Structure prediction request, 167 residues.
Amino acid sequence: MIYKKVEEILNVQVQKEDYSSQLYLAMASWAENQGYSGVAEWLYAQAEEERMHMLKIVRYMNERDGVAVIPGLEQPPKEFGSLSEMFDAVLKHEQYISKSINEIVAVCIEEKDYTTHNWVQWFVEEQIEEEASVKDIIDKLNLVGDNNLYMFDRDILGMRGGANPSA
Ligand code: FEO
Prediction:
């Protein structure tokens, strides 16, 4: 079984992971149109990963006799300025997601749901990795500067981190 408050907050997280996937898909498409094929691949893969995060929560809730609500699609922005601005937005978004994962941890403790508390630790770890990997990208971007974006675009695929969502 799953506690009502835990079910509610997990359904909110389903929406957030779903939106993350849409957001990164929009960014991937934008980057591809700007000619940044490496960045686009990185973002397409990231969009897939976010979808796996959403599925991981849906399947956990159903496994625990909860009811997962599948959200409708929310339209993400279409323009992202520069690569720098876009990756700053990715970092900001991931920090927001980390905060909401911590809120799930807090509700689990409040409700004494130690099973979900244990399960959600995977997301806690994942957020540490995701934030670190985006920070690395931003550092690299600052290092190469605007004149070397071709090199940056070529090298970014070697910078993919993240844990396996099916683990
Ligand atoms: Fe599923 Fe990037 O957080």
Q: What stands out?
A: The domain at 4-73+80-159 is CATH 1.20.1260.10 (Ferritin). Residues 114-144 form the longest helix (31 residues). The helical segments are 4-33, 37-63, 83-110, 114-144, 149-155. The chain has a mean pLDDT of 94.
